[in-house]
Design a protein that fits this description.
7 strands; alpha/beta; five-stranded mixed beta sheet
Length: 301
């Protein structure tokens, strides 16, 4: 899944103005001084925001923020997560923040209300953001406008009713191939990676080959993406296994010999490295099995 997120972020970073235009509904606005920001501040789930753009719009400096979500969030509730991003961005930059989430898969984001509500009498909190589901965006209008940053996403957008899925993909490839970009192979490769969310990779490669003669290069791009993803997953898996081993070793040495047996089944269900690091610290500080169990239970809520 990481390759979809990476492809989305790279495209937005190359063409940030197209995403600013998307945020404001392609209104006629005066956009100047666009600056892509690499956020370093932690968020509510210890993640960095995907794309943060500082931009002057109609003479006013603002922050435009985008999150790319392949599927529905399976970890932190998306409204809470977005609220965390927005508050942190306001706190960090002291500017108005226009926050957006883009759902890539056609079935994702249906239940996202576009707002976080903390409804307590006299302590209400309301944070709103825009929700873009690509399947609901008129793809033909994007093809006609040719915004370079959005064209790689068009295979995931709503196609005209009379156009078949394969004909639509071909039209998207033709349009993407017609724009002037510095690295056409990488550009079409991004379209191929994103398009593989709904099309078979072989179908995408065949159409690219027929329309652009770029199939060998795009095939290499797919292979590189897959290799990189495999490397990243391998590194993460190795780190997770080491973290689990360290926790179990500390529990065994500091508490009871059978502590590893007691907690191992639960610990093995945890993939988040930040959480495992916290549990490692808890194991070091715990005086009893109950102390560690309380931290473990609290983390599983």
């Amino acid at each position: 899944m990481a390759n979809f997120d990476t492809a989305s972020k790279k495209t937005a970073e190359i063409s940030p103005k197209d995403f600013v235009d998307l945020c404001f509904g392609f209104e006629t606005i005066d956009v100047t001084d666009i600056e892509l920001i690499q956020p370093e501040q932690p968020t509510v789930d210890m993640r960095q925001a995907d794309v943060v753009i500082k931009v002057e719009i109609n003479g006013k400096l603002v922050i435009v923020h985008f999150e790319f979500q392949t599927t529905d969030s399976s970890e932190t509730d998306m409204p809470l997560r977005m609220a965390g991003y927005i508050v942190r961005l306001i706190e960090t930059y002291g500017l108005e923040v226009y926050s957006n989430v883009i759902y890539l898969r056609p079935d994702a984001g249906r239940g996202d209300p576009g707002q976080f509500v903390h409804d307590i009498a006299e302590h209400e909190v309301l944070v709103r953001y825009k929700v873009f589901r690509l399947i609901e965006i008129d793809g033909q209008s994007i093809l006609e406008a040719k915004p370079m940053g959005l064209l790689p996403f068009t295979p995931l957008m709503k196609r005209p009713k009379e156009v078949s899925a394969e004909a639509w993909l071909r039209r998207c490839v033709q349009t993407a191939d017609s724009v002037n970009v510095e690295n056409k192979t990488a550009y079409l490769g991004t379209l191929a990676v994103l398009g593989s969310l709904v099309y078979e990779p072989e179908t995408i490669l065949n159409i690219i080959s027929e329309e652009t003669m770029e199939r060998p290069s795009i095939s290499e791009h797919f292979a590189a993406e897959a290799l990189q993803q495999g490397i990243e997953q391998g590194i993460e898996q190795g780190a997770r296994e080491r973290a689990l081993k360290d926790i179990l070793e500390v529990l065994t040495l500091r508490l009871k010999p059978y502590a590893a047996t007691v907690f191992k089944p639960t610990l093995e269900t945890i993939d988040d490295l930040d959480r495992l690091a916290q549990l490692h610290r808890a194991a070091i500080l715990a005086d009893t099995l109950d102390d560690f169990a309380q931290v473990l239970t609290a983390n599983s809520d």
